[in-house]
Structures are given as structure tokens and as C-alpha cells.
Amino acid sequence: MDLVNYLYLASILFALGATTVLLRRNAIVVFMGIELMLNATNLALVTFARMHGDITGQVLAFFVMVVAAAEVVVGLAIIVTIFRARRSASVDDVNLLKS
Amino acid sequence: MTMQTLSLAPWLVATPLIGAALLLLVGRRSDRWGHWLGVLASTATFVIGLVILLDMLAADPDQRVGVHTVASWIDVGPLQVDVGFQVDPLSMTFVMLITLVGSLIHLYSVAYMSHDRDRRRFFAYLNLFVAAMLLLVLADSYLLLFVGWEGVGLASFLLIGFWDHHLPNAVAGKKAFVMNRVGDMGLIAAMMLMLATFGGVDFSTVLGSAGAADQGTTTAIGLLLLLAACGKSAQLPLQAWLGDAMAGPTPVSALIHAATMVTAGVYLLVRSGPVLEAAPDAQLVIAVVGALTLLFGAVVGCAKDDIKKALAASTMSQIGYMMLAAGLGPVGYAFAIFHLVTHGFFKAGLFLGAGSVMHAMDDDVNMRRFGGLARLLPVTAITMGLGWLAILGVPPFSGFYSKDKIIEAAFVGEGWRPWVFGTVALLGAGITAYYMSRLFFMTFMGRRRWVTELAGGAGREGGSDGTPVRHPHESPWLMTLPMIVLAVGSVGLGFALNAGERFVHFLEPVTGHAEHHDPVLPIWLIITLTLTLVAAGLALAFVQYAMRPVPTTPPPAPAVVRAARVDLHQDDVNEAVVMLPGKVLTRSLVFADRTAVDAGWLGLAGGVGRFGTWLRGLQSGYVRQYAAMTLGGLGVIVLVIWLFSGQGAS
């Protein structure tokens, strides 16, 4: 099987994630889009590692997972706090910091 | 000269400087005794000077020049300047003139300024002036001289504008300061040229190697020194500040604008003698400037009704004589200094006398409202009378010896020069006689053009026909004593110094020995002509101002007199020639600055500001928009990498 197909899959997943982030208002869904993008990147990294016969990409994928896990914890905490304060999970309602 | 007395030289400058510093730093607490401290500092300086002078006179003539180096001042590569004091007959002559006349004027000021609440500050400035002037004449390099030169300018500025609560006085001080700056530029440029040509600015280097230098260079240095001298000595074309400088208190006019500061230019030129001798063209220009100023001052002096301004014009004219003599070369240096010394005495005496008259006449300076004061102010009238005879050059008063020598020296030479300079000097003597006699007669003789209340009677409080009410009284002894001493100097100094050409020989270690040349006219004829012209001027003034009544308002007069009343339009000329073009230049520069430079930078700043405002619009607060921009940015980066490196590598 051609390894390039994995890259096509990664690109499609990344595009899906990015579209989700850009188009959806619900913070939880946006969050899921981000996760999708991160995992698409991981897939690409692992594929590259396989293509080059080098484990650097795999190591990098582990780092991304760790950081993503931490990010999920912090991000969800923020979303929950904002929802409690403002009764809304829409990212468009959180625009108070603009000048 | 012994080392002990030579090492006293720094104290000549330090003593009055300490006096000034004390008076200024202690402040109002010294109001009660400050003026006496000022007198003490000045007198102590005179005593120190006298000690050095006596020691100098005891030494052989070739042992009379000494330099006392105190410290190294500037030590950068080729430029080595020491703080050194040049003690020689020329500088000691000035030291004696400055400290003696200065001390007398300090004493006079104690009484003259007794009603002024800032008398202490006045004495601080007087001491500062004496210190600066002494530094000027004792410096052993042009650079140190320049320090004193600027100090003198500063003291002059402070003293002219002493009563600065009255706006014209402050303006006069500023005018003097600014016009002096023009001359200072000349001295600075001259020092630059000296440094470039001779590699130093101390007298021994410059004067020692001036003879070997290129004549074009020495001419340039000579002309720049002349510019400096013109500024300080109020010579054409920088003469306009002197008349306005009379806004200062009268002792200032006597000390600074008659006896000492204005002589600094003559000192500079005589000191720079070897440079000028290597530049005949510069010498000619100096003589011409002196001759022109001599006539200019004399003409202005004839028309002035303000007693102090008439004396100021006379100062200008007399210093013109000195400049003329300094421009004649070694034959004239000693006579220039001789006239400077005698002039210092009689002019200071005349100014102090004028101050005494003003003191008696409620600070009025208009001679048209004086008259008949001789009986009421006998001491003032006699001392001023002696000064008047001295400046006229009536034998045997001191002006006769000094001025006559200059007139004789002006007649020495070849070609057209002796005839022109000699005639101008002769003519100047005649005009001097006229305007000084006019001043004396208008003040002390003739009908009284003022009234006392008693003589005026009730109902006529004066002023109805322009005659003011006055109560003239003789000045206190503190004022008359200095006048008497100066009058004695006006009478006897010329004879005493001239006997056996004593003074000329005394100065020879500095000015060099001048070969004796015969004038183009026999000496007896020159003296006769001079005295005839002086007598004619005196007689004319006597007829006009002592025998005939003097109108209390200036009568209509021909154009030349009207011009002389406004200083021959010197201010108009300065405005037209210098001020207006300067104004146009600065205005156009300001315009160019605003339209080109400022507009460019302001436009740039405005552009950045507008760009920032536009950029701010992107900060909408919508997270998704930010995410889109991040994604777009990523796309751009990928595109750029693909275009420039990815494609190039493949």
C-alpha cells in the first residue's frame, strides 16, 4: 500500500478540522475540530517517520499527544467556566476583549 | 623679576574672583557689608599689582618679561595649553590701569549705588568684571585670553542690564552681548587659523613664528583679530552697542565702557604686534577702521544731547585714535597704549563727573536741561573741567602728550597714507575739542535751564516751558574723592609718563624698539595745527553754547546733524544690512523646515498611524476570525516556501 494515501487522509482530516473550527460557533465542536487537526498532523508525522525510516516524527507525535491532552484539560475548564458565567458556549459571544 | 613676585600673578585674578564669588554666594546676608568687601577685593588686587610692578621696575629692562605657569589646562596631542600668566610691562600697565581706576570706581559706587537695594550684586559683578579683565590681560595664550574676553563680555552684559526691570536696559544689555559675539567669532576663527598654521595658541609660539608664516595667512589672522577687536572696542562696523550700553549705571559706563573693557581690542592688537607686522594689508585695514571710527564717533558726539551718550561717542572716537596708532606698526603701539592709559584716567573722570551731575539732577541726562551748574557743583565742575582740558589735548594736560604723539605718528610714512591718516587725526582733534567743550559748556556754563521751587515760585511748578524743577547739590566725598584722584591723573599722568619717553621705553620689551622716523610735516607745525584746531573747536562751542542761550528742545537742524542725533543711522544700517537678510534667511529656513523636513516626517508618522488604525479593525474579538487569519497566514507561508525554496530545490 502506498504511504502517500496516509498523507491524503491526513490532509482531508486536517481540512475537515479546520473547516469545523472556522464554521462552527459552539466551543465544544470547535474544540473537537482542533483535536481533529492535531490528530491529522500526528498521522502525517507518523507517515513521514515511516517514509524516511526515522523515528523523529513518531517522537514528535507523542509530544503532540501530551500537549493535546494538557490543552484539552485547560481548554475544557475554560469553556465550562465561560458557560457558567455567560450561559453560552458560542465562541462569538466571547468578544469582550476587543478595543 | 624674582620668582616670588611672579608667583603673585595668579592672585591678581583670584582676589576679585573670590570677592565676586563670596558676594554672590553669601547673598542677601552680606547686603550690609558686601560693598566694602568689593572695594577691599579691588584695592587688594591693586596692592598686589603694585608690588609686582615695583619689583619689575627694579629689574633690568631685559629681565622684565616673565611667564608664570600654574597648571596644564589642555593636553591633547599637538594642542598644549597651559594656565599661565604673562607678566611683562604691557600686561602690568593694564593691571595698574584696571585695578587703580577700578578701585576708585568701586569706591565711587559705594555712594552712587547707596539707594539701590541690589548694591551687593552690583559689586559682585564689578569684581567679576575686574577678575575677567585681569585674566584677559595676564593670559599667556589666546585661549586663556579668550576666557577673560568672554568673562568681560558677561560682566558687561550683567552690568548694562543691571536695572533690567526697565525693558530698554535689558535690551541694551542683549544688544551689547550679541554684537560682542560677532567679534568673538573673529577671535575663535583666528585661534583656529593659528592652531593650523603655528600649531599652538600661546603667545610665545604664535608671536615667535609669525614672521616666518605665509603672508596670506597672517593677513587673515590679522583681519580676524581686528574683527574681534572691533566687537570689544566698539569700532566700525560693530560700534552700535556702545551708545546703548549707557543704560547701565554710570560707574559701569566709567569702568567698562571708557577705561577698561573697550580697551581690550587695542590690547589684543598691540599684543599681536608681530602677527600684524607680518601682514601689512591687515595693518592698513586696522588704521582705516581706526580713522573712520575716530571721525564717526566725533561726528555723533557733536549732536548728542544725552551727556552719557556724548561721552560714549567720544570714547568710540578716542579708541579710534588708539586703533589708528595700533595700525601704524611698532611706531604706534606704545603711543596707542600711552593714550589708552591717559584716556582711561580722564574718561573715567569725565564719566564719574557725569554721574555726579546726574546724581544732582535727579538722574536726568539731557544736557539741554542742565546749564549753570558750575557754582552749585564746584568739585564736579573742576574735576570734569580738568578731564575736559585733558581730552582736548591742551598742554600740559595728559591728553596733549598722548594724542599729540598719535597725530605725529599718523603723519609718518610714505605715499598717501601719512596725509590721509594725519589729516583725519588732526580733524578729529578739532571736532573732539568742539563736542567736549559743548558738553562742558552746556552742563556747567550758560543760563540755568531748570528751576528750583523757590526761584520758580508758587503756581509755576516747572515744566510749563520745559524747565524742570531740580535741587542740585554736590555729591558726597565718597564720590568726589575718586573724581579728584582721576583729575590729578588727567593733569599729571601724561607729563610724568612722557618725561624722557619713559613710558615708551618701559613698553619696549613687548612692543619692540621702533626706529625713529620724521613725519612728513615738521613737528612744530603739527603741534601748532593741532592746537589751532583745538582752539577753534573750543571757541566755536563757547560762542554757541556758553554765550548764546541753549534751546531746551533740539532745534531744527541740517540733515547731517539730524543723522548724527540718531547715531548716523547705525541701527538702520545694521537692520537693513544684517538683520533683515538674516530674518529672511531664518524665515525661509523655518519655512523649508516646516514644508519639507517636518512635512516629510509628519507624513510618515501619519501614514503609520493610519495603517495602525486600519490594522486595529482586524482585532474584531471573534475567535473564528483570528483562526481564519492564522490559517491564511499559514497558507501564505507555505506558498512562499513552495515558491522560493521548494521550487528552486527541485
Automatic annotation (TrEMBL), chain A:
InterPro entries: NADH_UbQ_OxRdtase_chain4L/K, NUOK/Mnh_C1-like
Keyword Transmembrane helix (UniProt): yes
Xref: Pfam families: Oxidored_q2
EC top class named in words: translocase
Cellular compartments annotated: Cell membrane; Membrane
Topological type in the membrane: Multi-pass membrane protein
EC numbers for this chain: 7.1.1.-
Alphabetical keyword list: Cell membrane, Membrane, NAD, Quinone, Translocase, Transmembrane, Transmembrane helix, Transport
Keyword Manganese: no
Catalytic activity: a quinone + NADH + 5 H(+)(in) = a quinol + NAD(+) + 4 H(+)(out)
Domain of life: Bacteria
Transmembrane segments: 6-23, 28-48, 60-83
Family: Belongs to the complex I subunit 4L family.
Description of how the protein assembles with itself and partners: NDH-1 is composed of 14 different subunits. Subunits NuoA, H, J, K, L, M, N constitute the membrane sector of the complex.
Protein's job: NDH-1 shuttles electrons from NADH, via FMN and iron-sulfur (Fe-S) centers, to quinones in the respiratory chain. The immediate electron acceptor for the enzyme in this species is believed to be a menaquinone. Couples the redox reaction to proton translocation (for every two electrons transferred, four hydrogen ions are translocated across the cytoplasmic membrane), and thus conserves the redox energy in a proton gradient.
PANTHER family associated with the record: NADH DEHYDROGENASE SUBUNIT 4L-RELATED (PTHR11434:SF21), NADH-UBIQUINONE OXIDOREDUCTASE SUBUNIT ND4L (PTHR11434)
HAMAP family xrefs: NDH1_NuoK (MF_01456)
Name used for this protein in its record: NADH-quinone oxidoreductase subunit K
Organism in which the protein naturally occurs: Isoptericola halotolerans
Taxonomic classification: Bacteria, Bacillati, Actinomycetota, Actinomycetes, Micrococcales
Name of the gene this protein is made from: nuoK
UniProtKB/TrEMBL annotation, chain B:
Domain NADH-Ubiquinone oxidoreductase (complex I) chain 5 N-terminal: 73-123
Main location: membrane
Membrane topology reported for the UniProt record: Multi-pass membrane protein
Subcellular compartments: Endomembrane system; Membrane
UniProt keyword Transport present: no
Pfam families cross-referenced by the UniProt entry: Proton_antipo_M, Proton_antipo_N
Record-annotated NADH:quinone oxidoreductase/Mrp antiporter transmembrane domain positions: 139-425
Keywords for the protein's UniProt record, in alphabetical order: Membrane, Transmembrane, Transmembrane helix
Cross-referenced InterPro entries: NADHpl_OxRdtase_5_subgr, ND/Mrp_TM, NU5C-like, Proton_antipo_N
Record keyword rRNA processing present: no
Designated name of the protein: NADH-quinone oxidoreductase subunit L
UniProt organism field: Isoptericola halotolerans
